[in-house]
Amino acid sequence: MAVTKNPLIRYKILDSCFRNPYKKFTKELLLETINNKLIELFDDESHCIKLRQMQDDIAFMKSAEGWNIELAEEFESKKRIFRYEDLNFSINNAPLNEIELNEFQSAIQVLSQFEGMPQFEGIQEIIAKLKYDLKSETNQQPFIGFDTNQDLKGMEYFSLLYNAAQKQIPLQITYQDFKAEQPYTFIFHPYYLKQYNNRWFIFGLHEETMKPDWNVAIDRIVSIETSNAKFIPNTTINWTDYFSDMIGVSKPIEGKIEEIVLHFNQLTGKYMENKPLHETQKHKWINNETLEVKIKVIPNYELARLILSYGDSVILLKPKYLKDKIVKILSHTIENYKPIIFT
Length: 343
Description:
Arc Repressor Mutant, subunit A, SH3 type barrels, 4 domains, five-stranded antiparallel β-sheet, four-stranded antiparallel β-sheet
């Protein structure tokens, strides 16, 4: 019997009833108590159970797979009273059963994949303790891979930025973007961390310009210190909405939402049906060889790069100015690949 969310909740309710020395729980009262608690927790009756399910739950708790609970042989007016033989017993204090051990060990294997990531500082000690306590295998090879860049520069600042955004702490950041010859320093009020294309960015208010969606790439940060400035909270931007009308992290100042029309060849088109470019995507096959994809986004640097990444498997039809830009980039690319003639 699988231990899933609702059964575990029911076992804990039963455990509480069995430990109660002041109330006499008959099977009818047990069932009523369980269902009242479930309604209270989930705010509807869809999680309520019938007598047969409750009897199965009790049988599981009695079994070796469960917690080997022992109920007293107690009756009142020929009705069975359900109560622990030892009222000090609780499944919360009992050793983990086999199913719980399996669940924990599976969770440990997944958690292990996060070891070394700065946003999970301290997890190594937690995993080591869990493995020791549960006697889990420590030599099992990883079986899941995450799309992360462990060598990304600046990730040592992630935890600091995470905490600053969460606790509303202003920062003094020394930064060097790709265009600047020398680093420069500014006061920054962090609001929102965003990952795109295996890079992390933090958005917030740049105090000098008062721009509330200033974009800071973590890998371009030189140093960070906390600032004595008073934190200016975000009162204008819903970040879910902010990113919903574009691809990537850069939003042009005068940018507006436009319809982007793309034609993909047959092979890539089948892929694009199952992996949309954007939540606004609508697509249709205009013939056996071509999938037409339409999205409505603000054109930006990331969109152009994404289109270019599909090479000769896609044609951009509109908007025209973006098509001309793509053609210009491709023309320069061809020039770069022309043979060099040595004289």
